[in-house]
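Worked Example 4.2. Consider the chain below.
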Amino acid sequence: MSDPSVPSEYRFAPALVVRFLGVVLVGLGLLTLVLVTLAALLDAPGAVSVVVVVVVVAVVAAGLALSRLTPLVRLDQAGYRVRLLRGAGVRAARWRDVEDVVTATVQGHDCVVLRLRDGRTTTVPVAVLDVSREVFVQDLRTHLDAGHGYRRIR
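Applying the procedure from the previous section yields the following structure tokens:
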């Protein structure tokens, strides 16, 4: 069981990062081909090495940003914050504003839905996270219980 006083951060699942980087590589490959061809037609050989360096830096930066730097979901003592998930609904809320947490299937994807007291919701598709659904839900419930002042009986 996680400690609710310690923030939890969840990032993209590695399979999604690899898939996205594949798309980025194809796009950058096409861009490189166009720029190298343009540099050859304009007789600018120095531009080719600049293009290659820029492409390598862009791939490394995209990989780092997706895999390490940017958490999708952050749970802390005060509440939660969701970033980079299109259609998630409410991006951040305090635990005392959360009425309950349920699992649901939304458009064929397993999701965790946080329902707020004012009727709004936050939807997190668990397949995009770097942990299993069970671990995420347990950690979420632990933070929610602590945020409401509940303690589990052991």
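The chain has two domains: 10-69, 78-147. Helices lie at 14-41, 45-69, 133-147. Compare this with Example 4.1 before moving on.
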